[in-house]
Specification:
The protein is 7% helix and 40% strand. The strands form three sheets. The chain has a five-stranded antiparallel sheet, with no helix packed on it. Strands 8-7-10-5-12 form a five-stranded antiparallel sheet.
Length: 141
């Protein structure tokens, strides 16, 4: 049964379990327990040149969970009214991003690695790639 605390529809940092071991630490993610959706797709972003930004879109229905497995970067979210900035730099913290949030990833450190878990497969029709259109859609509802 899914964790009821995960049913909120707001972006938030979620701390993942940490198993400390002198040989090296371990963390893990369980759908329905640590994140509020079933994982249908995983992808990662790496080798981002200095000064580049990734993202720059929103999803109509897709939810994501973003983790900095290595290095650091910032995730900037916008709901059409206000901007939120999250700094990810620990592999045992992740950012839950609900649908209908404009997102961009920026300020990547050297050798950073972003892991993104999503609740559905890639679907170009789910993307909103125009910020003005996003603001109109989000403020209409």
């Amino acid at each position: 049964m899914p964790n009821p605390e995960l049913q909120m529809n707001t972006p938030r940092i979620i701390e993942l379990p940490k198993i400390l071991d002198p040989r090296g630490n371990l963390s893990f993610i369980e759908e329905g327990n640590h994140i509020p959706f079933a994982i249908e797709r995983a992808y990662w972003i790496y080798d981002v040149p200095g000064g580049e930004t990734r993202g720059g879109h929103a999803y109509k229905t897709l939810q994501e969970f973003i983790i900095a497995l290595s290095g650091s970067f910032e995730v900037v979210l916008n709901d059409g009214k206000e901007e939120m900035r999250f700094s990810l730099n620990r592999s045992y913290y992740g950012l839950y991003v609900p649908k209908m949030y404009w997102r961009s990833l920026e300020n990547f450190s050297t050798n950073s690695l972003a892991l993104i878990l999503a609740d559905s497969a890639y679907n170009e029709n789910d993307y909103i790639r125009d910020l003005t259109q996003f603001q109109l859609l989000n403020n209409a509802g």
